[in-house]
Amino acid sequence: MQGVSFESLSRTFGTPLYIYDADSIVRQIYVLQEAMDRVKIKFAAKALTNLSILRFMKQQGVGVDVVSIQEARIAMLAGYAPVEIMFTPNCVAFEEIVQGVELGLTINLDNLQVLGRFGEKYRETVPCFVRLNPDILAGGNIKISTGHSHSKFGISIHQADHIREVFSRFKINLRGLHIHTGSEITDIDVFMRMADILFGLAREFRTVEVLDFGGGLKVPYHANDQAIDIAALGRRLSQAFRDFHKTEGRELELWMEPGKFLVSEAGNLLVRTNVVKETPKVTFVGVDSGLNHLIRPMMYDAYHTIDNVTNPSGPLGTYTVVGNICETDTFAADRDIPQVREGDLLVIRNAGAYGYAMASNYNSRFRPAEVLILNGEPRLIRHRDTLDQLLTGQVDIFKEK
Known about the structure:
This protein is of the alpha/beta class. The protein contains twelve helices and 18 strands. The strands form two sheets. Strands 1, 11, 12, 13, 14, 15, 16, 17 and 18 form a nine-stranded mixed sheet that branches. An eight-stranded parallel β-barrel has the order 2-3-4-5-6-8-9-10, surrounded by six helices. Helix 9 links the parallel strand 9 (210-212) and strand 10. The chain is globular, with a radius of gyration of 23 Å.
């Protein structure tokens, strides 16, 4: 990665280790900016909420999308002004919305009841966005599809009359309309259906300045995997915005909030082989990590390419790569990998998004360190956990005084 060997990284920082390639992040930002006219990108911080990563995004001119007050405060510590932060919480207490307003965040509401309370409290004094549920089933695993009729996210488009009534009653200042249908979308027509919904409502609500298409852009996980055609999507969305401007005389802003698209390919989880365990049916490769560090394969059936970087030219073998957690934690089943031996380093690819961000201390194991490769230099951006950190916050009521 940028000329830095995985072996040297393992010697310096140990394993398991999360490693991110800054150049890859920059490339993804550039691809999106080149594809779409004047798109405003806001990084979905939940994908990788590391302070240094957020600072790096800020340096690249990318805004940020957060889903909690804690994420917002971390973004502010990373240098973001509150106005640059889109706050899209879900199923939170109204007090958290109030905190967002007091911080000066851009507020995005996805619940009719909350919208009513917001209107009653702030009326036209605080602008807001509304997140819509378009009743579109799209993306990959159902667990990461958020725009269908049984999803908890967004105000259903079928409740548009209720939205109109609330805005009419309280004279709410609607600045933007937002839709996010889920993750791993490859079908451009899904975005164009979202565009039809957003443009339709924007014609009614003359205060609307921004149409926000969320994220969900599919990235490839292996050589034969399908990815979304960003250039084609950009052409069609950009033309739709130009057509709206021409017919309505209003120029709207295009926002997108990619998470996985920006950081997935940039991230690698470096692990070391503890054991190679042969059974009558399966050859297991047991590594020094597990679902406590990368839960996506078990939670979403996600595919991650695994490379043997110690023995890349070895004869192919068929292995099931598993972790060291007292739980079924299979990274890959029946996968063809160059011969794996005890002590070999393996790299789990596409681990930049929702890897460390969803990590835990299950089995009281430490979360990995994180390293950013910046201009060919590995920089530590998070220390590995310690036992003291695991015990922080616990109260031993039986300890002798």
